[in-house]
Design goal:
With 295 residues, the chain is an alpha/beta fold. Helix content is 32%, strand content 32%. It contains ten helices and 15 strands. The strands form three sheets. Strands 1, 2, 3, 4, 5 and 11 form a six-stranded mixed beta sheet that branches. Strands 8-7-9-6-10 form a five-stranded mixed beta sheet. A four-stranded antiparallel beta sheet has the order 13-14-12-15, sandwiched between helices. Strand 1, helix 2 (29-38) and strand 2 (42-47) form a beta-alpha-beta unit. Helix 9 (221-231) runs antiparallel to helix 10. The chain is globular.
Length: 295
């Protein structure tokens, strides 16, 4: 992370600012991760959807993109795996951030004043216990957490609450009506930093990889792959299947693996490539520890 920030400042001083796409607007968790990973000397490109984010990176409108990939409560954001694959994007880094949801509204608003709460479906899902305690509050799904906060601030909307981060409340000058309303205290989301594959240069040193492979229907194929991973001293940290729309009942498998020796991974990759119908390395990078302490 420190190296990324130094490179960002170096680039800004000698060249143009690094441009980074995020899903949502400033004040969102994507924005927070971009700043944590790359520093404050970056230009943010706000995208209304993950599809727009992927397209902006593929068309070289930006240098990097930050994308949420999974949450410790809600699980994987499955469509994003397909976007990384379909747009030929490369994972170059990862970041875990603690998700601590705050209920915010116009200054002076009390909890009893709130009639409606609007936020992203994922945020709403992560605050189910709070809503059970306040059944009279109407829940509204929106595309972005920070966008609701900005609209409340800009339009001075009374009786409407937003669910977003502590930093978001400061950016849009809203009061926190109820603190930490998420249902589970150790709620964490994993984000990945993406680069256009055509611009990516292989890392000299890494201890984690994301791969994708496709298998035929032969009995025991997946078990064989998992045995290969185990026998070559690789640790499988994530496996996710995704249906292939063009071929009914056939699946792509997206796998994250960590290892102590890159040679183990290189050897395993060659074997999996030989026994699968297709194989792709989605990224090699350094394994990050979870960061669950952010506000």
């Amino acid at each position: 992370k420190k190296i990324n920030k130094v490179l960002s400042k170096f680039r800004t001083f000698f060249f143009k600012k690094m441009k980074v796409s995020i899903q949502g607007i400033k004040g969102s968790y994507h924005h927070q991760v971009a700043l944590e990973l790359l520093g404050s000397d970056i230009e943010i490109n706000e995208c209304i959807s993950f599809d727009n984010l992927a397209e902006s990176l593929k068309s070289n409108q930006v240098d990097f993109a930050v994308m949420a990939i999974e949450n410790s409560i809600a699980g994987s954001i499955i469509p994003n795996y397909a976007l990384i694959d379909d747009y030929s994007l490369t994972i170059v880094d990862e970041y875990y951030i603690g998700i601590k949801h705050q209920l915010m509204a116009l200054p002076g608003t009390k909890l009893n004043d709130i009639k409606e709460i609007a936020s992203h479906p994922m945020a709403l899902l992560q605050c189910k216990k709070f809503f059970k305690l306040h059944p009279k509050i109407k829940i509204i799904e929106e595309s972005d957490t920070a966008a609701v906060a900005k609209r409340i601030s800009d339009d001075k909307i009374k009786f409407l609450g937003a669910i977003a981060s502590y930093k978001c409340s400061k950016i849009y000058k809203l009061d926190i009506v109820s603190k930490n309303i998420h249902s589970i205290s150790n709620n964490s989301t994993r984000f990945v930093l993406l680069e256009n594959t055509s611009n990516n240069k292989s890392k000299l040193s890494y201890n984690k990889a994301s791969i994708k492979f496709v298998l035929n229907h032969k009995t025991g194929n997946l078990a064989a792959i998992l045995n290969i991973i185990s026998e070559n001293k690789l640790n499988l940290t994530k496996i996710q299947s995704l249906p292939m729309a063009e071929t009914p009942w056939k699946y792509s498998f997206f796998v994250d693996i960590t290892f102590e020796n890159q040679k183990f991974f290189e050897k395993t990759s060659k074997i999996i490539k030989n026994v699968s119908e297709s194989f792709k390395i989605l990224g090699t990078y350094n394994n990050k520890l979870r960061n669950d302490t952010s506000k």
